[in-house]
Design brief:
By secondary structure, the chain is α/β, with parallel strands linked by helices. The protein is 42% helix and 18% strand. It contains 21 helices and 19 strands. A 9-stranded mixed beta sheet has the order 5-6-7-2-1-8-9-12-13, sandwiched between helices. It has a 6-stranded parallel beta sheet with strand order 16-15-14-17-18-19, with helices on both faces. It has a two-stranded antiparallel sheet with strand order 3-4.
Length: 545
Amino acid sequence: MRLHHYQIDPQYKTSVAYFSMEFAIDQALKTYSGGLGFLAGSHMRSAAELRQNIVGVGMLWSYGYYDQSRYEDNTLKVEFRRKFYYFLQETGIVVDVMINSKPVKVKAYLLPGDVFGTAPLILLTTDIFENDYLSQTISHKLYDINEETRIAQEIVLGIGGMKVLEALGLHIEVYHMNEGHSLPLAFTLYQKYKSIDEVKKRLVFTTHTPEMAGNEEHNIDLLARMGFFDSMSATEVQNLLAMHDTNFSLTVGALKLSKRSNAVSKIHEKVSNQMWSHVEGKSEIISITNAQDMNYWADKQLLSWMQEHEDYQFVGRKKHLKHKLFEEVADQTGKLFDPDVCTLVWARRFAEYKRPKLLVHDIERFRKLVQNSDYPIQIIWAGKPYPFDTNAIEAFNELVLLSKEFKNVAVLIGYELRLSKLLKQGSDLWLNTPRWGREASGTSGMSAGVNASINFSIDDGWIAEFAQDGHNAFVIPHADPHLPIEQIDRQDYETMMDKLQSTILPMYYKDQKRWIEIAQNGMRDILHKFDSTRMADEYYKNMYT
């Protein structure tokens, strides 16, 4: 079966299957939660632009991640609504996968590459009438809270994905695991070749986070009972991989079974090699810094005015983009923002280490900031907390309630591709506040920066490879990571606020020429080094061959 709508470029002829639990391809396709999906989506778009011989393998989530709505008091309401897609193609392929000693039917759909301009994407579902209700729920919700359901999802992705590729008659030379979720495919390969070396020849792995929560572990006997290791027993796996702990780490297993692994920034490479230094027999961990597909994210007219040095038109276009964002702000909150006012956005996954509330660390200083008529500012928060993380939802709601006090502060819901693009194109400043060393890469600032939203960020992840303070970005030098967390947060907060109030806002209002220069330097540098065609090319050259 021919899947690609383009002629393969000979330099990318190695056939690759790219396994990911989430893909952010288009607003209409709800198969993602956040950064991992945004990254996978950009990879698939750039693979098509480069005409690479790659196919994506993911899950067709019946209810997506979740839908953000509001209660009567405007706080966050988590809703699960069934999705329907009429642009997916039937492949006619249904395979059986053993889960908990019971056959579960996995149906494969195809997202043809010419629909959204990507490499072809195979999406798997168990939500079909041939399965009982419990089996149908496996592919209902991305990152289901139930542990056994999560394990079942990974079995469907890894083993089900392998079986579907075989049923399609595809000869895959390299299997790329984007995070450890699809690790069961490695054990299917081992069952086929009965040799770790043969498995390693065909397997590569990308690790995306230094956060332990992102490096899954499960009881090894539970995994074996569920069928995670194909038909291998827990003891066989422990002996094969010399992993004798009761809990089995998916990341460690992936590092041991891959020929090559990569971190997603240079800092993350160092952190990962330190973090996993105790793992014997692990693959080499190199770095391939994440990137985003600028054909998708960049406003073409804004880019054109930048490249033609037409600053008057450039400023006019930026104000137009701010207008489009502010229509959304008005629709959601009833607040009318002013395109002449400096607009700061914090928008990404609502995780504690990303510190969404750092800006309000000192509430009185925050009040003075947003009420300063000499240097006015507008602030927008957006992002999706994990739907079952009560602390993250509480943090989101605290900001919602705080925002009611101010006409120039807004918290938006519906942080998906469409809103993300509006925010990145319509903001002046893109704030990024992770605790240093805990942001593997972070990519939102790339797609913001290419739209003349200047990065205002802690020097972590990709920012450390990009930012030159006062030239193409505003950098927040990080506090000593060995200090207590409270002290780190206080110090980073003071540094951030001092720079915002003393340097950034005065420049915005008093030196527009300098502001435009920094914004345009950022655009040029991102286009040069952080477009995902560079990343997709590096994967072929450094990982697949």
